[in-house]
Specification:
This protein has nine helices and 13 strands. It is an alpha/beta fold. It folds into two domains: 124 residues, Vaccinia Virus protein VP39 (Rossmann fold), CATH 3.40.50.150; 151 residues, Vaccinia Virus protein VP39 (Rossmann fold, 3-Layer(aba) Sandwich), CATH 3.40.50.150. Helix 5 runs parallel beside helix 6. The relative contact order is 0.10. It binds S-adenosylmethionine. The site of S-adenosylmethionine has 20 residues, from helix 6 and strand 8.
Length: 311
């Protein structure tokens, strides 16, 4: 996109006085023409990117909030309600595939829209904070767990993770759960008395905060980080790796988790992971481990154990 929707809006009538707080902009989001900006992001790789620009802040002095629409409808709604509560101008920028059209229709019922830019398969619009839409934003967490809007599988235990949990036998020593999410697998890992420590590595801060509550175990340490950069020396790596960064599947991320596992395992350590059956991880597993076996699976998932990590 040559000019972003925000850039076009600034050229066509959006005026900002004071500080603009931007919620969850993706890496590379176009800030051209902006002078006084703070940014918040709970996803570690994005947070690191914006931190390097010096713009991370809590928006305490904001006069306007820009919400970049997330994929999760519940998170989008919660974020917009929070932006309205903060007061001032509210700007919403989103793709059609992320539901911006229905958000626009709902906001139009409760506020006067001051401007709209429709381009690049999405829409940006702005209005003055006032009444919030009467959306139900209650997260329906699985029984016995705390989850939050927008985290992976927020309303139900993931079927792949549940299958992997049935293969966690005889776990002991120092373990890490790469991409621990809200902690379903981590709690299952900690059910094994032989586990002496568990590092829960997760990029999404909101999910990790839930994992801490859901495990509530002194052996567990929450690590907000990019798993691909994680270091350590473990007896066991357990993982249900992420399989997409956007709406599209991205096996590279899962391959990165496999390479990381090989790098952080002790020589006699093992990786135990679940993957969607169609994901092509075999070549990476064979490149990074001396022994790879499929333990079992279903039509949808495969459970893989890999040992003899190659350095
Ligand atoms: C398929 S989910 C598994 C979640 C959890 N283990 C479970 O079983 O419910 C993968 C998790 O990896 C996290 N993730 C994505 N990219 C990551 C990265 N670069 N570093 C660490 N975690 C990441 C996602 O936020 C998500 O929670």
């Amino acid at each position: 996109m040559k000019y972003s929707r925000l850039h076009t809006a600034l050229a066509e009538g959006l005026t900002l006085h004071g500080s603009l707080h931007i919620v969850r902009p993706p890496v590379g989001y176009d800030l051209a023409g902006l002078h006084d900006v703070t940014i918040e992001s709970t996803f570690y790789p994005d947070h690191q990117y914006w931190n390097a620009t010096g713009l991370i802040g809590d928006g305490a002095k904001r006069t306007a909030t820009l919400v970049v629409l997330p994929r999760s409808k519940m998170l989008a709604r919660q974020t917009i309600i929070a932006a309205i509560a903060a007061g001032g101008t509210v700007i919403i920028d989103g793709q059609k595939t992320d539901g911006v059209e229905s958000v626009y229709k709902d906001i139009r019922k409760i506020a006067a829209i001051h401007g709209v830019i429709a381009k690049g398969h999405g829409r940006l619009f702005w209005f003055e904070a006032g009444k919030a839409p009467a959306w139900d934003v209650t997260v329906k967490s699985p029984d016995g767990y705390q989850t939050a809007a927008g985290v992976f599988s927020e309303a139900k235990i993931d079927a792949g993770s549940a299958l992997l949990a049935t293969h966690l036998v005889d776990l002991k020593g120092d373990v890490t759960d790469l991409g621990a999410g809200w902690g379903y697998l981590s709690r299952e890992i900690l059910a094994h008395d032989g586990v002496t420590s568990l590092d829960m590595v997760e990029a999404e801060k909101t999910a990790l905060e839930c994992a801490v509550v859901n495990t509530n175990d002194a052996r567990a340490t929450a690590i907000w980080a990019d798993a691909l950069d994680h270091r350590g020396a473990y007896d066991m790596v357990v993982s249900n790796p992420p399989f997409h960064t956007t709406r599209d599947g991205n096996p590279d991320l899962g391959r990165g988790f496999i390479a990381t596992a090989a790098r952080i395992l002790k020589p006699r350590g093992q990786l135990l992971m679940v993957a969607n059956r169609h994901l092509p991880y075999e070549a990476e597993l064979d490149a990074k481990f001396g022994f790879v076996e499929e333990l079992s699976g279903s039509g949808a998932f495969k459970i893989i154990r890999a040992s003899r990590p190659k350095r």
